[in-house]
Specification:
heterodimer; A: four-stranded antiparallel beta sheet; four-stranded antiparallel beta sheet; B: alpha+beta; 4 domains; five-stranded antiparallel beta sheet; 11 strands; 11% strand; mRNA binding (chain B); nucleus (chain B); THO complex 5 (chain B)
Chain lengths: 361, 661
């Protein structure tokens, strides 16, 4: 005898109430799913930006999901550090898109990513449910797609913040009034990085179009252009011509990316030293008498000014996107170098010779 | 002294000699009536004291004479010899006196002895008499005591008490006047009465016995009648079956089931009851049966057990199943059926399940889909981590140690899988790591898990069947995208899937581009692994896929390796990493319509689209001769964005262009 078949109500979604005994069985299944999902998220996380707090004891890191995590450096560096100390104290969703860049003043943290810049108070940031102080969007020309902001730069002398990114312009925002004062045009492709030249108030920018341009802030126009890819010594056509990283020391500038990492003399616009690194570099900075660079590949490279590779210290990520040196005078015990990139981990170097440990999202 | 002994004998001899010695006179007249010399008679006449004096005097005389003789002899002289002779004769006479005295003494002694002897004999006789009399006295005393102790049998009988006796007994027996005074008569009367009563009661007893016999016979008859009734009722029920069927009331069938179900061990019974309760109101899509497997019980051969065989037998004994099992058939929407058979292992107190999937139409199994519906793995990890290879009851470990079983894994093919959800459905709860003394089946535990588990089982079967169908298509190089998922992808996709194969877990772990997944613990041995190959022109993209048994609520995980102008993986190319992220992390938009079975195929299609974008947006190296291998056909707003210079992998639906996330 064939039983009568009807549509079983069970075939639809089962939504048990909060106190239903079914909830137990479902939660086990749910947790299993959540665990896998979280593991996948962490595997595919990229940390784009880092920033130290003004007191020097905390590190903020921004990732590609738009989250910012605050780590306590003093806890992680202390002698009783446990595994939990290497986890963030607080993580919050800052932006809808990736957080490409962060800078910090005495009291504020600025983060920028998908077209907006937000400000956070350091004093409030450790509390749960922290909200941004303000959120601004520079005036963009195109409306089809919101351009990203790749670089933030603080100009302390005129108390302003410079943003640069996807719309190929440098926008200046006055920090007191919050208005956008200048928009410097000149790049033909989006801007990757910014650097400030202290003596004359000039800003350098490097972009996807392969040029490094100098801008005079007072006159608000382009002063000098260096087309890096046109110089044979440093150009590497198979990598492209994009300039990914810039650092300047008033008379000198080091830049890298598609072309090789090169040290330039600014006044004469000539490349003086080529650093023989075939992997494109994504971040470069001057430190004491060394140049530190990082990019594709897990190592932090230390170069002498003469062009010799002094050391290559491996980190834990397969590729690095940012380096940060904690030189805050208030916390000399937290004087570390941190490196982050294509993973959910931030490597902490207490001594430039080796990686001490890693903080992790 | 010989003289004494001779003196002893001498009385006889002396008598006979004495007679002649001084009896010359006597011999001469032996016929003299009674007048002959008897020394015995003389003894009585003489006084012993005087004899003693005489003896002393004689001895003195002898001594004197001897002394005189001595004197004379020493003096010498002629007359001495005559003197000596006189004295010698005197001394001889003295000697003879001494001899006589001696004789008399002996006779006296003898007489004395005889008298003593007689007296002694008399005393002995009296003594003997006395003993005899004493003995007799003792004997008599014993007899008296015996008589006094004698208990008559009548005292052993429990008689009714005196008062009762007087009350109950009829006067002709009790005879109060006589018996009151005389205890003997009273006892006799009581005994009489006792006897009467007993006779009466014995009569009653015999009557009752016969009654009882009669009644027993009646009962027998009635029983026979009833037993003949049973087959008649059965035949009536059989006859009513067609009526039941006609009216759609399978009363009989259900009743039979419940009958058999009563023999089920507790956990199986809980399962049976709960399953019936769950599906009763809906009245469909499930068939419940309890099955008897009597043949399992028989052992096939008898052999002399060696040690190994003994161990084997012990193991078999420990793993023995209860002969009854519960079969549950879950029918899904598309007419495929999941057959579950639940067993109960008696000694281990756990339940196991064997699963089988049958479909409405015959399935041709593609090569890569071998494991999807295999009974061994189709129900693996229904709940996360529940792989069913280890016994859930921690107490079993001690039992296993005794018979040398390492793990239940070796026996699961035979016995079924002891999943945790099976134990919960049977109401058995094993708290972790603490062997409980007894775990009893609990209905509330079973009912709280039944609904969810059944739903999960259905989902599992349906997703596996969907995958089965999809694999058949994938093996032919076609990614089967259903019409309601077309909006996720651009119209033109040039990259093609050329290969889809299963790979083993060990092979997956060995691949150089899967290290991250393995380290993150997402590649266990309960997952299924596949390798897909997507090609376009000279570019070959390998994708290693981890398929979790919990598909499709847990997404498959892809790891990519592109071979085009060098080998690019997520460790050396940020865009490969972004492609993986598009497929692994952003999977929710690829799930498709509700049950989400389209996830894998959509992911594969997206992979093809991503490869297209990647290849077409690669900047042309000016230093190399020749045109671009892949001209850009996709509409993109911008080619690169962000510090890591991401390609535009996100497809925007109605507009049809690619942008960045």
């Amino acid at each position: 005898m064939e039983p009568v078949t009807q549509a079983c109500p069970l075939d639809q979604e089962l939504n048990p109430g909060p106190f239903s005994p079914q909830a137990d069985a479902l939660t086990t299944e749910h947790t299993g799913r959540m665990e896998v999902f979280q593991a996948l998220q962490r595997l595919h996380m990229t940390i784009f930006s880092q920033c130290f707090s003004p007191c020097g004891k905390f590190l903020a890191a921004g990732n590609n999901y738009g989250q910012i995590a605050i780590f306590s450096l003093s806890a992680a560096l202390s002698s009783e550090a446990k595994e939990e100390s290497k986890k963030p104290i607080v993580t919050f969703q800052a932006h809808d898109g990736p957080v490409y860049s962060m800078v910090s003043t005495d009291r504020h943290l600025f983060s920028a990513g998908d077209g907006e810049v937000k400000a956070w108070l350091w004093a409030e940031i450790l509390k749960k449910g922290c909200k941004e102080l303000w959120c601004r969007q520079p005036p963009y020309r195109t409306s089809l797609e919101v351009p990203e902001i790749n670089a933030l730069l603080l100009v302390p002398k005129e108390n302003s913040l410079i943003l640069a990114g996807g719309d190929c312009q440098l926008h200046t925002m006055d920090l007191e009034t919050g208005t956008f004062t200048r928009a410097l045009r000149g790049h033909t492709d989006y801007i990757h990085c910014l650097a400030l030249r202290d003596r004359n108030p000039e800003v350098l920018s490097g972009g996807e179009d392969g040029t490094v341009r100098l801008w005079d802030l007072r006159m608000a126009k382009e002063v000098q252009t260096i087309e890096v890819y046109k110089h044979e010594e440093c150009s590497r056509p198979h990598n492209g011509r994009w300039i990914g990283c810039l650092a300047t020391d008033s008379d000198w500038m080091v830049c890298g990316g598609g072309p090789a990492l090169t040290l330039w003399h600014l006044r004469s616009s000539t490349p003086t030293t080529i650093f023989p690194m075939w992997a494109p570099q994504k971040h470069v900075t001057f430190y004491q008498d060394l140049i530190l660079s990082a990019g594709q590949g897990p190592c932090v490279n230390q170069w002498q000014l003469s062009g010799e590779l002094k050391a290559q210290v491996p980190g834990s990520s397969p590729g690095l996107l940012s380096l940060s040196l904690n030189q805050q005078p208030a916390a000399p015990e937290c004087k570390v170098l941190t490196a982050a990139g294509n993973s959910c981990r931030v490597d902490v170097f207490t001594n430039l010779g080796y990686r001490a440990f890693s903080l992790s999202f | 002294m010989s003289s004494e002994s001779s003196k002893k004998r001498k009385p006889k001899v002396i008598r006979s000699d004495g007679a002649p010695a001084e009896g010359k006179r006597n011999r001469s007249d032996p016929e003299q009536e009674g007048k002959y010399y008897s020394e015995e008679a003389e003894v009585d006449l003489r006084d012993p004291g005087r004899d003693y004096e005489l003896y002393k005097y004689t001895c003195q005389e002898l001594q004197r004479l001897m002394a005189e003789i001595q004197d004379l002899k020493s003096r010498g002289g002629k007359d001495a010899a005559v003197e000596i002779e006189d004295r010698r004769i005197l001394s001889c006479v003295h000697f003879m006196t001494l001899k006589k005295l001696n004789r008399l003494a002996h006779i006296r002694l003898k007489k004395g002895r005889d008298q003593t002897h007689e007296a002694k004999q008399k005393v002995d006789a009296y003594h003997l008499q006395l003993q005899n009399l004493l003995y007799e006295v003792m004997h008599l005393q014993k007899e008296i005591t015996k008589c006094l102790e004698f208990k008559s049998k009548h005292e052993e009988i429990d008689l009714v008490s005196v008062e009762e006796f007087y009350q109950e007994a009829p006067p002709d027996i009790s005879k109060a006047e006589i018996t009151m005074g005389d205890p003997h008569q009273q006892t006799l009367a009581r005994l009489d009465w006792e006897l009467e009563q007993r006779k009466r009661l014995a009569e009653q007893y015999r009557e009752s016995l016969s009654n009882k016999e009669k009644i027993l016979k009646e009962i027998e008859v009635k029983k026979e009648y009833l037993s003949s009734l049973q087959p008649r009722l059965n035949s009536i029920m059989q006859a009513s079956l067609p009526v039941q069927e006609y009216l759609f009331m399978p009363f009989d069938q259900a009743h039979k089931q419940y009958e058999t179900a009563r023999h089920l061990p507790p956990p199986l019974y809980v399962l049976f009851v709960q399953a019936k309760a769950l599906f009763k109101p809906h009245e469909e899509s499930q068939d419940d049966e309890s099955d008897s497997d009597a043949e399992e019980e028989q052992t096939t051969k008898r052999r002399r057990p060696t040690l190994g065989v003994q161990l084997d037998d012990k193991r078999k004994e420990m793993l023995k199943r209860h002969p009854l099992s519960v079969m549950l058939d879950l029918k899904c929407k598309d007419d495929s059926v999941l057959h579950l058979t639940f067993y109960y292992l008696m000694n281990l107190n756990i339940m196991t399940v064997k699963a089988r999937v049958t479909t409405a139409t015959e399935l041709i199994t593609p090569i890569s889909a071998g494991d999807l519906l295999s009974p061994d793995s189709v129900l693996s990890c229904l709940y996360p981590g529940d792989h069913g290879k280890k016994t859930p009851n921690p107490a079993n470990q001690y039992q296993f140690d005794k018979v040398g079983i390492l793990t239940l894994r070796d026996y699961v093919l035979d016995l079924g899988h002891p999943y945790l959800w099976v134990q919960k459905l049977g109401g058995l709860h094993f708290p972790k790591e603490q062997p409980q003394p007894t775990v009893i089946a609990d209905h509330s535990l079973s009912s709280s898990h039944m609904e969810t588990t059944m739903k999960l089982l259905k989902t599992r079967v349906q997703s596996r069947l969907a995958l089965h169908k999809q694999f058949a298509s994938l093996e032919h190089g076609i990614v089967p995208v259903t019409s309601d998922c077309h909006y996720l992808f651009p119209a033109k996709v040039v990259s093609r899937l050329v290969k889809w194969v299963t790979i083993a877990h060990e092979d997956y772990v060995e691949l150089h581009f899967t290290k991250d997944i393995v380290e993150a613990g997402l590649a266990g041995d309960t997952n299924l692994y596949y390798m897909a190959l997507v090609e376009r022109g000279t570019a070959k993209l390998q994708a290693a896929v981890v398929l979790n048994p919990g598909y499709s609520s847990i997404p498959p995980i892809f790891q990519l390796c592109l071979n085009w102008k060098g080998e690019k993986t997520n460790s050396n190319d940020d865009n490969i990493r972004a492609m993986e992220s598009e497929v692994n992390v952003c999977y929710k938009e690829l799930c498709g319509p509700r049950p989400g079975h389209q996830l894998l195929t959509n992911q594969l299609q997206r992979l093809c689209v991503l490869l297209d974008v990647y290849l077409e947006t690669e900047i042309h190296d000016d230093s190399v001769e020749g045109p671009k291998e892949f001209p850009q056909e996709k509409m993109c707003l911008r080619l690169f964005r962000g510090p890591s210079r991401m390609k535009p992998f996100k497809y925007n639906h109605p507009q049809g262009f690619f942008s960045h996330r």
